[in-house]
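Before a colleague's protein record goes any further, I have to sign it off. What it holds is a sequence and that sequence's fold in token form. My question to you is simply how this chain folds and whether the tokens agree. Thanks in advance; the entry in question is below:
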Amino acid sequence: MVDRLTVEVIRYAAIYASEEMGVVLRNTAYSPNIKDRLDHTCSVLTPEGLLAAQAEHIPVHLGSMAVGVKATMEWLEREGVSLEPGDVVMVNDPYIAGTHLNDILLVKPVYHRGELVALVADKAHHVDVGGSVPGSLGGDVRELLQEGIVIPPVKLVERGRLRREILALIEENVRTPHYFRGDIKAQLAALNVGEKRILELAERYGPKTLLEAWMEILDYTERYTRRRIEELGRAGSYGAVDYIEVGGELLPIRVEVEVRADGSVRVDFTGTHEQVEAPVNAVYGVTVAATTFALKSVIDPEMPVNHGFYRVVEILAPEGSLVNPRKPAPVSGGNTETSQRIADVVFRALAEAFPGRVPAASCGSMTNVAIGGVRGDGSRWAFYETIGCGSGGRPTGDGVDGVHTNMTNTLNTPVERIEQEYPLLVVAYSLRGDSEGPGTYRGGLGIRRVLRLAEGRAILTILAERCRSRPWGLNGGGPGEPARHYLKRRSGAIIDLGCKATVALEEGDEIHINTPGGGGYGDPCKRDPRLIEKDTREARVSPERAARLYCYRPGGGAGGVPGTTR
């Protein structure tokens, strides 16, 4: 039996290997979405595909990695495909890989003197994978094939040889082949580093010890999670409902969270709306990721997460529903938007189970903006980013202004990078005053982002949420302000985009993005007057809003909302 100290050394070494893989991927990537926004994730898994260690990357990737790699290994076994030394498998089929088509998953076996001792894997969001619109995130798609090329598990590298014909095939089906090739090679470089670090562990401790350590790492997490749940002592069933916006309808996502006395948790989404012909269906891997994120955040934010956690948590998602659709339902926004709502509704149920440990709702949207077109020289371009918002007010403090929340952990795209790389001009970028949910601790402010098409023509897609439903407050706090997105034509005409739209752009058109604020926590009339004065002084909250919602009349005026405008 491997000793406890050795297990800890191996555990942290595997986590560090995942982090180092991420650094390599970021440094060698081509696209701003990966190099600047860090839209990628890296992990180490057991030979069976059980998650053993991961870096602190993208929550929607991290939770789904446990589902996607295992499903990929099972698919290969069913098809009679064996993984040999030097192989790398590529897959983006959401119904296997566990997220959406833009996220390409690579898996590499790690062999030590002929024995399989681990798998290393990384997943990265590629800016375009084909489909009906640039960025592969259509606001009005009705089936999976409209979202891009579907790649079943295939060997991209076979016994160390890169299969260039596979790369060439995919490059012909995407709008930005230069980015695609560079980013895939960055993913391969990251896997090579991960493999090297695991082989160093196998060489130092021996493969038998390494394999035993993986199992003990999972066992430890299971024991730890059960003990933490038991210590919190809140056994019982807790339900909640929240909504996804499709057309003029609000579609329910329902959850029942059962916290059991034995330290296990059962999360049941029975009663959730059936899948729809719209890009808001979340494959099971996404549902697992969002549920895992919410549970971990409340039970113990610092606890390790690996496959041992999934021995404790049972997640039931009815097949054919928004949270576990059947192929070929489109899923691009399920990965980004429905994942946020799943986290919201689980948090809302946990607020009843664990009072004082759950904040008000964050904005509840990643606010996807995808723009692309053809330059004058005939070259294609595609831009993609998610835009931050306000996080929810907390039991002990305000929400955070202008931040990526919950299922996303990316950065913004720097203004300089956008204007260097694309025919776009950033006209304004600021916090969105008066967007917070009022409370003793207010919600964070959303973001205002204005982009102008500087030349040519393009196609814009907005894929977002919380235009109609609002981020909820807790303990007497008010909801955050909803999103508002619109297009200002060069002629001056204003076109409301709602939260899901695909439209043509002309040179000079401006896209105005206004993301939601977070919900407030506690009675707004009990807010510290000094905090209200500071908010009004900095124009985060207007005097009129402070008087109306916070039972207070500030004595000072207001300046400009922090930010820059051209």
Remarks:
- The chain is about 30% helix and 25% strand.
